[in-house]
Each structure stands twice: as C-alpha cells, then as structure tokens.
Amino acid sequence: MSTFQEVKQQQIASLYSHNPTVTTIIEGQMYELPCPMNGVSAALLVNLPPEFPDVPPIITVSPTGMRHPWIESDVVVHDALHWNASQVQLGKWVHDIIEEFTQRPPARKGGTNGEAVEEGYGHRPPPPIPSNTATSATPLALSMAEYTSIVSRSMDELEELLSNDVAFELFFNSLERVQNMKTVQEELRNGNVNLANKNLAQESSLQQLRDQVRELDSEYRQLRSQFEEKEKQQRDAFDRFSSATMMTRLKASIHESDELSESVAQSFLDGNLDHDGFVKQFRELRKVYHIRASKLERSQKETFSYSI
Questions:
Q1: What is the C-alpha separation between 278 and 294, in angstroms, rounded?
Q2: Could you give the CA distance from residue 24 to residue 20 in angstroms, rounded to a whole number?
Q3: Residue 246 CB-density burial (10 A; 0-12 exposed, 13-18 middle, 19+ buried)
Q4: What is the rounded CA–CA span in Å between residue 8 and residue 2?
Q5: Considering 116, 132, 201, 278, which has the largest number of Cβ atoms within 10 A of its Cβ?
Q6: Residues 139, 58, 66, 32, CA torsion sign
Q7: Cα–Cα distance for residue pair 261/223, rounded to 1 Å
Q8: Closest Cα partner for 33 from 91, 88, 82, 72?
Q9: How far is CA 142 from the centre of its chain?
Q10: For residue range 96-128, what is the model confidence (pLDDT) as tens digits?
C-alpha cells in the first residue's frame, strides 16, 4: 500500500474512532453521521474526493435549507475548519462540526427551530459521482461554486436537468467556467478578426511593394544582360592581346616578312628589279623579319621560364 493510501486509511479510521455512529455509504468515499439539531433528525454526509487527504473532504448537511454561520448552500464551510492532513484528523474534524451544531443548532430557512419535518434520503444533497481513477481518466474537479449550485437544488430540479435538454443547456451555460470559456473564445475570435482587418488594411501597400519588386527584378535582369554582354566584349578584347594571340600574330608576321623578302629576291633573279632597288627592299624586309624573329624567340624564352 502506498503512503498516500496509508494516510487516507488512517484518516478514515479516525472517523470511526471519534464517531462510533458513522455509517458507510460508499467505502473509501462517502460516509454518513447522524447529527441531531434541536429535535430535527439531521445528518452530515462526508464526501472524500479522489485526491483526499491532499484536499479537504466535502461535508454537506441533510436536510437541505439549513441556516448557520458555518453552512453555505448546504455545504459546511468555515475559516476555523482549516484542513491539513498532516496535522488534522478527519474524525476529530467532523466531531468538532457535530459539537458546533449540537451547541448552536442550525435553523431551517423560512421557519423556526424544530419546525422541519422528517425528510428522506432523496432530499439530501447529491454526492459526487464516484470515479475509478485506475480505469478511467481523472474528471475535471468541480469548483465550490459549481458544487454548491448542484447541491442546492432539489431532486425534482435535478431530475428536470437530466430529462430536459433545454433546462440542462441553460444550467450548463450559466456555469462560471463555461461563461469564462465563452468569453475567452469571443476574445480570441475578436482578436482574429482584428488581425485579419489589419492584414487587409496592408493589402494596398503590399501590392505596391510587389509592383516595386517586379520593377526592380526587371531592371536587374536588364542590367545583368548588359553586364554579361560587356563582360563578353571585355573577354574578346583581352583575348586579342593575350600571349597566345600575340605569339600567333608574331609568327604570322614573321612568315609574311620572309615571304615578302623571298618574293623580292625572286623578282631580282627574274630581272624585274635592278640591283639598287633589290638591295634596298631586301635589306628592309629582312631587317623586319629578324626583328620579329628576335621578339618571337625572346617571348618563347620568357614563356618557358614562367612555366618553370
């Protein structure tokens, strides 16, 4: 047995030790104790919530409609009845309540002490529905206001709630928890509507930004196309002055100079050119040839040294 269950059983045992007349209604959950009130046959109904003893028991008074400083809507509530499972025994706690009601008996609402007639068990405040925490999920705990709104009703009113959907709907919607939930729901709905309206208000400016982006994108594509074209022109210009291109042109010019000098020599041999003209032209052409050949040789040496 766990410590929680041990403490709970000890508290229940104290209920029997301090109150020999206790009657078990539901083992471990509900107990009844007779509590005569100035000639009125009354009783206390001790309800132990599933979380007991971590939470205090709920003690209701039967018959309903009793007036006393410790009773609110048929539920025993008093600041002096502070619950602390480690310091308070359930039996002594309940015994003190019985002592208070014996010394200062509650009175019936709408009458004087002793005017009440005997009422059956059906007029007692309805106990909480038992729950099997081992086999089902723990239900939402009732607040004190919700509990009192139920226990303050007669059996006829409770039967009406169970059989009449309209009455149950009205009762359900009157609960504070439900009203708070609807309030939160309405606030969330209004918040969503406001947010949607703000978004719609930004639609025109957002459309303008989209148009600007499209214009900038079009301008970017145009500039990029121009850049790529100029970049190609630059590469072509660089290619004309590259080492490989210059070497090729230089070789072609050397070959051209050699061909021209050979052509002049052939013209002299054919008698088409006199001696002075031949010497002058041949010398100039060979001079150009050797200058270009020298440049080619120097360029090839430099290229070879760079490659090393």
A1: 24
A2: 11
A3: middle
A4: 10
A5: 116
A6: positive
A7: 52
A8: 91
A9: 28
A10: 888 888 888 888 765 544 444 433 333 444 444
Contact 60, 47 (CB under 8 A): yes
AA letter at 204 = S
Q: Using CA atoms, how far apart are residues 44 and 37, in angstroms rounded to an integer?
A: 11
User: Rounded to whole angstroms, what are the CA distances from 27 to 7, 52, 130?
Assistant: 15, 14, 11
Extract the residue ranges of the chain whose pLDDT is less than 70. Answer: 1-2, 78-81, 85, 109-146, 303-308
| Residue 88 identity | V
Beta bridge partners of 290: none
- The predicted structure's pLDDT at residue 247: 83
What are the pLDDT digits (tens) for 189-209?
888 998 899 889 998 999 999
- Terminus-to-terminus CA distance in the chain, angstroms? 92
